[in-house]
UniProtKB/TrEMBL annotation, chain A:
GO terms, molecular function: GTP binding; GTPase activity
Protein name in UniProt: Ras-related protein Rab-2A
CDD domains registered for this protein in UniProt: Rab2
Lineage, opening ranks: Eukaryota, Metazoa, Ecdysozoa, Arthropoda, Hexapoda
Subcellular compartments: Endomembrane system; Golgi apparatus
Membrane topology category: Lipid-anchor
Species, as recorded: Orchesella cincta (Springtail)
Automatic annotation (TrEMBL), chain B:
InterPro entries: Rab-GAP-TBC_dom, Rab-GAP_TBC_sf, TBC20/Gyp8-like
Protein name according to UniProt: Rab-GAP TBC domain-containing protein
UniProt keyword annotation of Protein transport present: no
Domain Rab-GAP TBC, chain residue ranges per copy: 179-375
Source superkingdom: Eukaryota
Region (Disordered): 34-130
Keyword terms: GTPase activation
Length: 212, 549
């Protein structure tokens, strides 16, 4: 399938916060109550449309256990977007965000768009982290923030697509160099490299919704 | 209650009700083991109990409880499984030795209050909990019988087991079909790992504790989360309480192993290995055997994976690329150099011995037979799963080489990672693995060194990619000859250019005006100001020569 751009994403965060479930909900539109544990890295892809352009998201889902970080780090390299996920029902997963963020910033390119995600928003009764806390953390660290539920699919599309929109806008602004694959962006095989640094119609003002 | 058969049933049950509280009412599998252990068990050794072990009254209670289980045992639960003829030959002595298992178990179940809270079944054994355990054992014994159940091979295995003929057992475990059934696996695996039955009985009392003070709460939480996610691998048909029960047993088993091996860090995937051993040991509801096997596994096979970080593992699994390079250079180039695919695709294969990846559990057991049987085929044994992984990639080499779309990390990773789920039969693959290990016997070290080099090489490839791309960002347009040439002349070789220009001007002036003074002044001026040292020296020589004329 042809695409205008390919964006590379990584999903990071503590074990059991629902990284793989978010990916499965986004790519397959289904939820597994007991999802397999991720050892090392797994991979998923989906096509979306932004500003009338087909964009392929190539998403790397990483293992949450800290011991694996030396291996998963090699996948941070060359990611345009990152979903940093915590579980709103487990305070410790929220407390670890700083280490994750430092790690991601250190091993990826500086322009990477990071979306902070508080997952399992359907479990309101077991909530341990207030939505405001997530918002504050995101504001302090310059992240986009959203609460999602991989189970009910609430905000899952938006999380992935808003990240893509942000990346797309950065391309339009010329922040991202699309000729450098190490930035996690690839131009589609059928699309000749038009100059992205001189946008004709302003940054994606009317971004479309997800495909399918 | 007086027949020897029933005695056995009782004692088994008592053991299972306490130790990790895994119980089955299925006594038939027991006999084979008993015939093995009877000679060495030495029941007397087990009298040395830990001071805070369970009060006798409680043990009695459990024995009573399990007696009733024995009474209520239904013959139908024994059907469909291989019934060794020795089933009825269990003696009272064996029964006593088995009771000691329960002692250790009692200690364990009381040592950890939190786990008790998690496991209401354990605290109040009821008829339903008995059903739970019965069912687990029955299901565990049926999930993994080889399709090609070969009676003569079964007999061979039993004979080798009886005579503890390790060489034959290794061969039988590696050959087609492996060890056939979990009933036969249970004791063969521990023998293949080098655990003597003496060791089994001895360590039980002296070293085994069921408190986990060294297992941090963080690790316990992690294990709990992981264990909650292994449901897929449980025998099909387990009821909810059965699942809960097996999960608790599995968590306890892992904590116990970690407590025993304080140097070992738990990794995600170790629970898959633990479950495999537990399922096999569950046939006789003997989690203690799983405990022993796992301890041995850490010592001999899993050590490098249980360090604080996965750095050693990461380096080690690059050996797969060294093997592929030796065997099929074209394939190596396509995967490592062209697609630049990192090795993480085989990480779950190596860390869990494929138990996380293979969809069918009976295949997992078969593969464990093979890997446990090949412990002596390669040195160090950590490389066995890597050789097996390499064989899997190599046997699909044609498919990978023909696929033109496999040009980047993502597509290559995807193609390689799904290889195990596409397997139709394990046997040809395992035969090739055997060949591969034989071929590189004695050359393991050089392969590992080469693997390390490939890791660095790939790292440089990635860095080069990043740097090249960054360099390309500079507006060098090689198609524009004028800009290119002027860059070459005025930026890169500016001193040469200036010197040449000066000399040309001097020559022009000399031939035009024939006025040496002017010419020399001009040249000297230019030389002093602009020319590089060698050029200056040369020109000064020319000037002096000119003046002397």
């Amino acid at each position: 399938m042809s695409y205008a751009y390919l964006f590379k994403y990584i999903i990071i965060g503590d074990t059991g916060v629902g990284k793989s479930c978010l990916l499965l909900q986004f790519t397959d539109k289904r939820f597994q109550p007991v999802h397999d544990l991720t050892i090392g890295v797994e991979f998923g892809a989906r096509m979306i449309t932004i500003d009338g352009k087909q964009i392929k998201l190539q998403i790397w889902d990483t293992a949450g256990q800290e011991a694996f970080r030396s291996i998963t780090r090699s996948y941070y390299r060359g990611a345009a977007g990152a979903l940093l996920v915590y579980d709103i029902t487990r305070r410790d997963t929220f407390n670890h965000l700083t280490t994750w963020l430092e790690d991601a910033r250190q091993h990826s390119n500086s322009n990477m768009v990071i979306m902070l995600i508080g997952n399992k928003s359907d479990l309101e009764s077991r909530r341990e982290v207030k939505k405001e806390e997530g918002e504050v953390f995101a504001r302090e660290h310059g992240l986009i923030f959203m609460e999602t539920s991989a189970k009910t699919a609430a905000n899952v599309e938006e999380a992935f697509i808003n990240t893509a929109k942000e990346i797309y806008e950065k391309i339009q602004e010329g922040v991202f160099d699309i000729n450098n694959e190490a930035n996690g962006i690839k131009i589609g095989p059928q699309h000749s490299p038009t100059s992205p640094s001189s946008p004709s119609g302003g940054p994606g003002s009317s971004p479309g919704s997800g495909c399918c | 209650m007086s027949s020897p058969e029933e005695e056995t049933a009782n004692t088994i049950s008592s053991r299972e009700s306490s130790f990790f509280s895994l119980t089955s009412g299925n006594s038939v599998y027991f006999s084979a083991k008993d015939s093995l252990n009877a000679s060495e068990d030495g029941g007397g050794e087990k009298s040395s109990r830990s001071p805070d072990s369970t009060p006798v009254a409680q043990r009695k209670h459990q024995l009573n409880f399990t007696s009733s289980l024995g009474d209520g045992e239904d013959e139908s639960s024994i059907t469909g499984s291989d019934v060794p003829s020795a089933a009825s030959s269990a003696t009272l002595e064996e029964a006593e030795s088995m009771t000691s298992f329960s002692d250790a178990g009692d200690y364990c179940s009381n040592g950890n209050g939190s786990m008790d809270d998690l496991n209401p079944i354990k605290r109040s054994p009821s008829t339903s909990s008995v059903e739970v355990r019965k069912g687990i054992s029955r299901l565990c014994s049926t999930i993994a019988n080889s399709d090609s159940f070969d009676m003569s091979k079964k007999k061979e295995i039993e004979e080798a087991l009886a005579s503890k003929d390790l060489r034959s057992l290794r061969k039988l475990a590696m050959s087609t079909g492996g060890l056939l059934s979990n009933g036969l696996r249970e004791h063969t695996w521990s023998l293949l790992l080098g655990i003597s039955s003496k060791e089994l009985s001895k360590k039980l009392d002296t070293n085994f504790k069921m408190e986990y003070p060294d297992v941090t709460e963080q690790v316990q939480n992690l294990v709990r989360l992981d264990v909650a996610r292994v449901l897929k691998r449980f025998p099909p048909g387990l009821s909810d309480p059965q699942q809960d029960h097996l999960q608790t047993v599995l968590s306890n088993l892992i904590y116990a192993v970690l407590q025993k091996n304080p140097q070992a860090y738990y990794y995600q995937g170790f629970h898959d290995i633990s479950l495999t051993f537990l399922l096999v040991a569950s046939v006789e509801s003997n989690p203690y055997l799983a405990f022993m096997c796992l301890n041995k596994m850490i010592e001999t096979n899993l050590g490098p994976h249980m360090e604080k970080t996965m750095d050693t593992t990461h380096e080690m699994i690059h050996t797969i690329y060294a093997i592929i390079e030796q065997e099929n250079e074209k394939l190596y180039r396509k995967i490592v150099i062209e697609a630049k695919c990192p090795v993480a695709f085989c990480l779950p294969w190596v860390l869990t011995w494929f138990s996380h990846t293979l969809p069918d559990d009976s295949d997992v057991f078969r593969l464990y037979d093979y890997m446990l049987g090949s412990q002596k085929s390669t040195n160090p044994p950590h490389l066995i799963p890597i050789f097996v992984s390499a064989a899997l990639v190599l046997r699909n080499s044609r498919q990978i080489l023909q696929d033109k779309s496999l040009t980047d990390i993502a597509s290559m990773h995807q193609a390689l990672a799904k290889l195990p789920s596409e397997l139709k039969s394990l046997e040809p693959w395992l035969e090739e693995s055997t060949e591969l290990m034989r071929e590189y016997r004695g050359k393991e070290t050089s392969l590992m060194i080469r693997g390390r080099k490939i890791k660095d090489l790939q790292h440089n490839l990635w860095n080069d990619e990043t740097n090249n791309n960054q360099r390309r960002r500079a507006p060098v347009r090689r198609d524009n000859l004028l800009i290119y040439t002027s860059r070459l002349l005025f930026v890169r070789h500016r001193w040469t250019t200036i010197s040449l220009l000066v000399m040309m001007t001097a020559y022009f002036l000399q031939s035009r005006y024939r006025r040496p003074i002017f010419q020399i002044e001009l040249i000297r001026n230019a030389v002093d100001n602009y020319a590089p040292t060698p050029m200056r020296r040369f020109l000064q020589f020319v000037i002096e020569d000119e003046q002397s004329d």
